[in-house]
Design brief:
The chain has 417 residues and is of the alpha/beta class. It has two domains: 324 residues, Alkaline Phosphatase, subunit A (3-Layer(aba) Sandwich); 79 residues, Arylsulfatase, C-terminal domain (2-Layer Sandwich). Helices cover 28% and strands 14% of the residues. The protein is built from twelve helices and 15 strands. It has a four-stranded mixed beta sheet with strand order 7-8-1-9, with helices on one face. The longest helix is centred in the middle third of the chain and has 22 residues. The radius of gyration is 21 Å and the shape is globular. InterPro entries: Alkaline_phosphatase_core_sf, Sulfatase, Sulfatase_CS, Sulfatase_N. GO terms for molecular function: arylsulfatase activity; metal ion binding.
Length: 417
């Protein structure tokens, strides 16, 4: 690929060829914290009452800024993952796994931008949610700096100008070395790609000054570093690898419309790879829609954790392991999003549903419906709501029923509007 216009990702490409790529994979929210919480718990952001990213600037300042001049106020949302929620890390730890979390957590309190070290509520860090080891996980949604010193109390500083993405890759390899004889869970959550856009100069120069592409390149390098370590230790045929993102791309994502923060496909459709040689068929793709709440139940089946070991946990997702390992089919089901929050791009302050090839977005301020046939219109250019009225109303009815079932928080009229 021409580096002036794109990025080469040989290691992620290699991972994709080694397993199954989902072409219709979704984050459960167009921003990070809600998706991260849903991955860990198997519950939707609406059920968790965490439908927006946890603001680094603090909740009061954030809401004042976002609600100004708007007809509706943002719906209420919580600023942390409650300790009462059970994560898949806790289940695996209880079943003898060594567990490590490396990188971005962003589920531990609001106002991190005003801290000196990213710590708001230390009891809400990964080590309080089932992880034996936590390196880098705190309230930060983005690092104070990608270069050491990191100003993060949960990771020791390295040599000056050490790059965070490289450091997390090294820490992952060290964990693998130390735990190669044990069952382990390594949750490697690169802060990349997120603002501030920073990368080593030589990598930025490789892309003619494009920091975004340089950061993608560095992430790919460290994905390769971890994959090579797994192979070197002889763990490849016994290690399930999942590659996934918590929201759509930071920049535009053609042919998908829009980007992070939007309920258009560019804000919610994400890469997803499952790889386990000898079990997951290599070089395969799957077009069955997949969303982040499916990860927990799929892990339980893949790792053969008995249902009795997590019988008291309510999981909203589907076990997709037979689709992944045996390429079985699955009947159409509805996937939902609830994002009652303002952004500076399109299709926010809204909820959405996808069922089969059809997707409906319901915007709250205008009460406008947008209906798309994604099979024929992946770029969501043609709104069919006025032509396919029966389909639009049927999907809207299902969406409203789901919002009631999840007891979703809804936006209220703004008294200052």
């Amino acid at each position: 690929m021409n580096q002036k216009h794109g990025v080469t990702t040989p290691n992620i490409d290699k991972l994709a060829k080694s397993g199954m790529v989902f072409t219709n994979a979704y984050a459960s929210c167009p921003v990070c914290s809600p998706t991260r919480a849903s991955i860990l718990t198997g519950k939707s952001p609406a059920s968790l009452k965490m439908t927006c990213h946890i603001p680094g600037m603090g909740m009061e300042k954030y809401l004042k800024q976002r609600n100004k001049g708007k007809k509706l106020m943002e719906a209420e949302f919580i600023d942390h993952l409650p300790l009462s929620e059970v994560t898949f890390a806790e289940v695996l730890k209880d079943n003898g796994y060594r567990t490590a979390f490396l990188g971005k957590w962003h589920l531990a309190g609001e106002g991190s931008a005003y801290t000196t070290d990213g710590v708001v509520n230390p009891e809400l860090h990964p080590d309080g949610q089932g992880f034996d080891l936590n390196i880098g996980g705190c309230a930060y949604g983005q690092p104070a700096d990608y270069f050491s010193p990191y100003r993060n109390a949960t990771i020791t500083d390295g040599p000056d100008e050490e790059y965070l993405t490289d450091r997390l890759g090294e820490e992952a390899c060290q964990f693998l070395e130390a735990n190669q004889e044990d069952a382990f869970l390594l949750y490697l959550s690169f802060y990349t790609v997120h603002t501030p856009l920073q990368a080593p100069k030589e990598t930025i120069d490789k892309y003619d000054g494009n920091k975004y592409l340089a950061m993608l390149d560095k992430m790919d390098q460290n994905v390769g570093k971890v994959m090579n370590k797994i192979e070197e230790l002889g763990l490849s045929e016994n290690t399930l690898i999942v590659f996934y993102s918590d929201n759509g791309g930071l920049q535009n994502n053609p042919p998908l419309r829009n980007k992070k923060g939007s309920l258009y496909e560019g804000g919610i459709r994400v890469p997803l790879i499952y790889s386990l040689p000898g079990v997951v068929p290599s070089g395969t793709t799957c077009d069955v829609p997949f969303t982040s709440i499916d990860i927990f139940p799929t892990f339980m089946k893949a790792l053969r954790i008995p249902k009795s070991n997590y019988k008291d946990i309510t999981l909203e997702g589907e076990n997709m392991w037979s689709i992944i390992s045996k390429q079985k089919s699955m009947k159409d089901r509805a996937i939902y999003w609830h994002f009652p929050h303002h952004r500076n791009n399109e299709k926010c302050m809204a909820s959405a549903i996808r069922e089969g090839d059809w997707k409906l977005i319901w915007e709250f301020e205008t009460d406008e419906l947008s209906l798309f046939n994604l099979k024929n219109d992946i770029g969501e250019e043609t709104n069919l709501a006025n032509q396919e009225t029966d389909k639009a109303q049927a999907l809207l009815g299902k969406l409203k029923k789901w919002l009631i079932q999840t007891n979703a928080e809804m936006p209220l009229l703004n008294p200052d509007y």
